[in-house]
Amino acid sequence: MADHNVRKGFDAVSGRRSRTNELDSIRKKKRDNAFDKMSSSMSVDFHGVEESIDETMFDACMVPSTPEEFMFCANQLRTNDLMEQLKGAFSLRKAAAKNTTKIFQLIVDTGIVPTAVTFLDQTTSDRGKVEVAWVLTNLASNDEFTQLVITAGTIPVMMRTLTSPNFDVAIQAAWCLGNFANEGDVYRQDFIRSGVPASLAALFAHPKCVPKHTSTVAWAIGSIARLATSTTETVKLHHACHVVDQQLFAALTNLDHRAMDKQTLSAVHDILLTVGHLSSGDDEDIGAVLNAGFAKPVIQLLYGVNKLARRAISIIGNLTSGDNDAFVTHLIDVSVLPGLEHSLQSDYSGIQRESLWAISNIFAGTEEHMAAALAQGLLPIIIQCLRKSDADVKSEAALCLLNFTSNATQEAIDIAVQEYEFLETLAKVCQPTADTTLLVSVLDAAKNVFMLEASTLNNTYAVYFESAGGYDRLTALSHHAKLDVASRADELLKTYYDGDDDFDFEDDDEFHF
């Protein structure tokens, strides 16, 4: 396998699931992370894959660059002479390692792909298998050629190759199957039904499985586990992926997190991404991940480098998003709250944002969960995030504080108002130029606080808000172009400040004056 992998599509993609109370404001949310296909952009040394091979036979092999040279190599693979077949496969693999569409097209133009698949399935040479599997893997990593490789009958052959007793052969098959999984859910479903995740996970225990291989296997499993769960059948299939949990957990805990060399860092990162996919689902998915023991090591990684901490905090968000309150109780018992306090103060906005998401889920839980989070001292940090962070963090902080006002006791809210300048902060961020989502969350949070006091006029909380310039901000927002913002501001003015403005709001999202 190559030491360097070319990957794309690893950014987190937002998703959201809502759980609402009578105020329609308590949210528990879920996120998703995306894998994509990967290829090798470097050549590797396959010495030792098959001990009987005389490696000097490859010294004179060409690296083809012209159509004629590619055809010559393809014809070598078409012979019945194993030595010639190995030379042809070697040369094609050296060319494919350049990882360019032009090279891939030259390989495809020889018509060799079906022959390569047959050779992979029938040859008894492990060296031949790994050379040809490499070529097919890199072809499959390119969107222009993935379907061509699939229609040549590669998938069932690769699934058989995955169970090869030769680790080098099996790991190459794992890589190729991961690329096929990233071609779409239809392949993920077939792989799950065929037991591919379990076969992949078995590779973790092989003595030759070093961190770079752990990374490949975790990536392949995650590429399957990212299955969309839009039907009852796909939900069940996603549940079936948890057959790998124990082996994945062992792989994570067996890595030396202190070493943090490039390959170890990549392996931990890819395991976390895969756990993110496994935990992104319903309560059965979350329970399976917790039962496998992932909570403690994931929490520990909140204190690691940003690359790992970001993945770890996303998993914590998934684990806090279930309907079973026992999940959050367990996380609190294993010290998630100090980890969240640490993450909340990260210098990386992505980690701050994910931390707020997880805390928001905790705020949407039981009174005990809320009390534990407040006792950890999270609230003033969240208010500070709303006051001084960038726009994305502010929006997440506003949603978090909305859940706080929806679920906290009056005593807790009074402390926030009197000691942490909560209402002053809400008033400060009510700027007409602010993000609409942020404004809606802030106005709803202010309303929740105002409602704690039965009186509407001379409402103590409304006075706090007004003293910080809140009345003037509400007046400006009552003319906001977005109905969701304007109607909320106008309601607060009329209810708590006896506002004189009287607007007739139309159903359209915008006003036209």
TrEMBL record:
- Molecular function (GO) terms listed? nuclear import signal receptor activity
Q: Which GO terms describe its biological process?
A: protein import into nucleus
Q: Which residues cross the membrane?
A: none
Coiled-coil annotated spans: none
State the source organism's domain of life: Eukaryota
Keyword list (alphabetical) reads:
Protein transport, Repeat, Transport
Q: Name one GO cellular component term.
A: cytoplasm
Q: Entry's InterPro entries?
A: ARM-like, ARM-type_fold, Arm_3, Armadillo, Importin_alpha
Q: Which family does it belong to?
A: Belongs to the importin alpha family.
Protein's recorded name: Importin subunit alpha
Q: Which organism is it from?
A: Carpediemonas membranifera
